[in-house]
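Ticket #4471: complex job returned nothing on first submit. Input attached below:
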Amino acid sequence: MNTATASKNASSSPRPPQNIPDKRLRKIDRTMRLNGYASHALIETLHTVQETFGFLDPDMMKYVANSLTVPLSRVYAVATFYHFFTLKPSGEHTCVLCKGTACHIGGTAEILRKVETMLEIHPGETTLDGKISLMTARCLGSCGLAPAGVFDGTIVGHLTPETVGNKLHEWRKDDADH
Amino acid sequence: MTLTIEKLQDIAKAEKASLESYRYQINVCVAAGCLSCQSDAVKAALEEEVKHQGKEKECIVRGVGCLGLCAVGPLINVSPPGAVYQAVQVSDASDIIESLTGNPVSRLELPIDQPFFKYQEKIVLENCGIIEPERIESYIAEGGYEALYQALRQMSPKEVIDEISTSGLRGRGGAGFPTGLKWTTVYKAQHHEKYVVCNADEGDPGAFMDRSVLESDPHRVIEGMAIAAYAVGASRGYIYVRAEYPLAIKRLRKAIKQAKHLGILGENIFNTTFAFDIQLRLGAGAFVCGEETALIASIEGRLGRPRPRPPFPAEFGLWGAPTIINNVETFANVAPIIRRGGNWFAGIGTEKSKGTKVFALAGRVNNTGLIEVPMGTTLRDIVFDIGGGIPGNRKFKAIQTGGPSGGCIPEQFLDMPVDYESLKEVGSIMGSGGMIIIDDTACMVDVAKFFMEFCMSESCGKCAPCRIGTTQLHKLLERITLGLGRSDDIETLKSLCDLISTTSLCGLGQTAPNPVKSTLRYFEDEYTAHIQQQHCAAGVCAIQTAKEAKA
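Support reply: We reran it on our side without changes. The output follows.
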């Protein structure tokens, strides 16, 4: 980050966290500005932070708290209350398995067990090498395709333990090739 | 720039004329269900192929909303001859374009005279699969925003509310509160500011009606909200939509932008003094935010925790102002009611439940997808005719309605007409419209445990009965499914259920025991088998491992 800009900003507005490129910060400032820096824009702003950085960084939470003049405790409370927000960076690849009713009836539990053994992690965790994050969703609303999951942002339906296993193998292999 | 009715009609005419200039229309479903089967690639391939065969002047390829039968996507509709093709792949594109002048491609054809299509009656979904959701012109060509014009220019707010009351429309979010009554309360409230909120936080697992409506016909919801705002004297609206629905969010954003650009949202709408603006608010994955007071708290940027009612949001809602909160499907019904009259709507359905209801069919049923049927259709018609029965001819066991707040309805009630009252009588609720069909491969104790796990982790923690009670219920169910249940567990379950329903603060806690209650009511023998014989008939529960653990 340009130190000259940083010191100029510091006097008038909350100090932005260090080492964060301007461009990403501008996105967050934009959301807050569009909402008139109102405290009720907190959730909207946290959405932008997560979209931009992939997770809610403690420094960013402080920055948002200062900018919107809400207590940091409230920012933290909101960030931890809502399941959509995550405080940890995710792995290179993300695998989200749907745990909705239709998917449950369709056998998600078995798929999840297989993935857990294969990756040696539980939902909400990332493999030690930082390659794959495993998550579960309440319901993707793709019940017509049950059991369904999201692999790196793409919804895939009619999953079986085999297809999911193959997909995860592929990810691992791809990365090994690099 | 204000929009006039002439301009609106011009847009409709131009859109229709441009469509009619093509001899052939190919409609590709681009709602989330088919998109996840790569329908966007199919659409691109078809467009490419049209160019390749030099048919650009006579054939148009459009991306439309949900065609309903999500089970066999990607779906496309070709007219003429009016054929529906299923499971279309990129490689089928050339055959489809070639067949335009000859016979339909028989290997892809989906018979459209089957019960799935025949028995449906569409009001909310009338535009789904017909219009292009991302173009306002397409909505206007089907009579869109005419109801808003009619309300603003030819009706008083009171007359609009009367029309809604006459129609007998009830809240489609689940509780079934009369919409006209809710609007009247807000209309009568004296306050300098009022709000209209659309609840699009479709959190029930197994429900995707609202998502499909938002993805297929977003303008209909905006029009419904604008009419509501005019009726009660509000000038601002919010749509609270799940962050898990990126496509719905994208299309809503686009729709709001287009409506603002045309002057359908903003100041002096249709040259009247009426002004209305809509903002989008994203949920962040909390089921409890579907509860109206929690939803309001979330829009205000706070923790989504409910508060005691009364006062109801109609009197004390968003930022303390009188607020209408209605579900997506409720708003989607408003424009047709204004256009065609409350009496027309009241003529459909049963005595106490009017109109149609959109259901999301899923689980062990052949035709999973989105359907709309008149209130009063029997469960048997829905499951076996429209739904096409159970795959592999397995035995029907139960149908789960109303998500985690609902219950499981066993076979003996299959001939029951579906409406708010009858569902309640048998221990379930209408809910938002998710219907999960369960066959004999599922264990009902496991199903109850599944919902309890859901309620336990979604409980916001504010009140003790819900926070602690759901955890205790889950522990008991866990124990039973492991084959470690005790003989008095069923009694404990029953008394805990009553305690939680009567003492919880909000709807989440009050209805959380419903799945346990209803499975106990109809499938107590399964509970007993787990407890006394350590036997799970469906073979779902991990009893074996527990036995081994004990040994």
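Helices of chain A lie at 3-12, 22-34, 42-53, 58-67, 72-81, 101-106, 108-119, 161-177. Closing as resolved unless it happens again.
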